[in-house]
Amino acid sequence: MRVVVAGGSGFLGSHLCEALLERGDSVCCLDNFSSGRAANIAHLLSTPGFQCTTCDVTGRFRVSGRVDAVVHLASPASPYDYHNHPLETLAAGSRGTENLLNLAVRHQARFVLASTSEVYGDPQVHPQDEDYWGHVNPIGPRSVYDEAKRFAEALTMAHRRSRGADTGIVRIFNTYGPRMRAHDGRVVSTFVRQALRGRPLTVYGDGGQTRSFCYVDDLVRGLTAMIDSSHPGPFNLGNPGERTVRELAELILLLTGSRAGLRFLPLPVDDPVRRRPVVDRAREHLGWQPRVPLDEGLRRTLAWSAAPTETLTPPDRS
Ligand code: NAD
Ligand code: UDP
């Protein structure tokens, strides 16, 4: 297969490129390097079958040669990134999705959309299965991301229904692991950075809000299964192990041996209170389920983050 990975130099994208190359596929990575890093894919540049084009998928770009699948991961993804780039986020979900759908249709290729648990907003149903329609504030600060992804899902289904496109949607829940940017503002990367530097961990609100954290290798197995499937989805991809943010903080303090404790800060507007995926559908149709427990995934993430290259990060902002 020759797979176009839009957003391939980012956190999830670089792991996906690696996994596809490992199983013998060719990869064409498209990225504007807004939140992606050249270092994430530097080791792939000499791999036969890997190619990277710097471009913005919301504008004009060219992909030459055969295309068997297109995976759309290109979007600002952390609350910090999409708050700082609201218009780019809306464009990535709308024009970016349309351009990549057109590319897939032209090549009669499989199209996989990386959607998000954020389509459920601050959910009033718990846990969340794929039949839940969500509870999203359409004008709140998170809406640029949530609504862009909801629009992207609608656009994907419209191309499937009206143009016969071979599409699949996955709704990704909080995923963590090596190559998260230390300053992307997400909770795992922030707590890991703070704990390794002996700083207090910044817990927003009282830390009673919950998330379900999936290790990146598990997530990438789900993405490759969706590329290989012809099922439209949507499928939740996430780890159903639900933790409060405070529990996560305490676990990271324990694993790092940090004694710096917690620092409580105000909860951001519209921060979802609870989040846990039901993954029965992905298990049934993709044969997928997460395998890596949180403490093991955090150990691997901490080992990577503590390695020397990760000290080459911007100055600490917290
Ligand atoms: P990331 O920021 O590391 O990766 C996004 C990549 O897309 C970056 O390499 C960035 O440079 C690139 N990009 C952004 N806009 C682009 C554009 N217009 N043109 C070309 N490239 C562009 O984030 P990530 O965590 O790897 O997320 C990847 C995808 O998965 C995103 O679409 C995100 O919404 C989705 N997702 C991620 C998570 C998670 O927990 N990591 C959860 C839900 C959904
Ligand atoms: N969070 C926190 N401290 C931080 C960063 C995040 O307590 O330094 C909280 C945040 O308020 C949210 C949860 O951790 O309740 C997950 O935040 P993240 O930005 O990782 O993802 P999302 O909100 O998109 O699930």
From TrEMBL:
<keyword id="KW-0456">Lyase</keyword>
<keyword id="KW-0735">Signal-anchor</keyword>
<keyword id="KW-0472">Membrane</keyword>
<keyword id="KW-0210">Decarboxylase</keyword>
<dbReference type="GO" id="GO:0042732">
    <property type="term" value="P:D-xylose metabolic process"/>
</dbReference>
<dbReference type="Pfam" id="PF01370">
    <property type="entry name" value="Epimerase"/>
</dbReference>
<dbReference type="InterPro" id="IPR001509">
    <property type="entry name" value="Epimerase_deHydtase"/>
</dbReference>
<keyword id="KW-0333">Golgi apparatus</keyword>
<dbReference type="GO" id="GO:0070403">
    <property type="term" value="F:NAD+ binding"/>
</dbReference>
<protein>
    <recommendedName>
        <fullName>NAD-dependent epimerase/dehydratase domain-containing protein</fullName>
    </recommendedName>
</protein>
<feature type="domain" description="NAD-dependent epimerase/dehydratase">
    <location>
        <begin position="3"/>
        <end position="238"/>
    </location>
</feature>
<dbReference type="InterPro" id="IPR036291">
    <property type="entry name" value="NAD(P)-bd_dom_sf"/>
</dbReference>
<dbReference type="GO" id="GO:0005737">
    <property type="term" value="C:cytoplasm"/>
</dbReference>
<keyword id="KW-1133">Transmembrane helix</keyword>
<keyword id="KW-0520">NAD</keyword>
<dbReference type="GO" id="GO:0033320">
    <property type="term" value="P:UDP-D-xylose biosynthetic process"/>
</dbReference>
<dbReference type="InterPro" id="IPR044516">
    <property type="entry name" value="UXS-like"/>
</dbReference>
<dbReference type="GO" id="GO:0048040">
    <property type="term" value="F:UDP-glucuronate decarboxylase activity"/>
</dbReference>
<keyword id="KW-0812">Transmembrane</keyword>
<keyword id="KW-0325">Glycoprotein</keyword>
